[in-house]
Amino acid sequence: MTKLFMFLFADDYGLFGTCPILNAFFILVATIIVVLFIIDLWKSESKFKKVISLSTFYFVFLASLYYAFFTITPVQIPEYGTDTQKSNLTRCVDRYTQSKHVRMDVVTYDNIISIMRDCKDGDEINATLQEQQLKDKQFQDSIRNIRVKTNQ
Description:
- The protein has helices at about 1-10, 20-45, 45-70, 75-80, 85-100, 110-150.
- It is mainly alpha-helical.
- About 80% of the residues lie in helices and about 0% in strands.
- The N and C termini lie far apart (about 65 Å).
- The longest helix has about 40 residues, at about 110-150.
- The radius of gyration is 24 Å and the shape is elongated.
């Protein structure tokens, strides 16, 4: 179950809640299932059956949500993470230990979340810079092409 939640709700860094489209889709599907379940129970004639079934369903549903929301962390990556999450974990930990000049024993259960957040933020900044550099290079290449054409 954790592997499924890591795949569905955690991003490439093992952080929860960073894919709002997928989370919204899950909430929509869960709401539709609940409504259909309630309609089906309401057709039942036994009030006791309705209450017990509805209570059981809500308990299982809320327990699953609780499990998903509170257990998905980068700590789960070594055992349950996707290949991308695992490669990012090793890359981010290596970057952290090299940049801070610390040994591996400094990486702990308590600070892995901040390490992964910092790594994600750094990757986003680097991606933005690389995007800007690519745009600048393309712009400069187009100016060079104009110069070559006008000099001919």
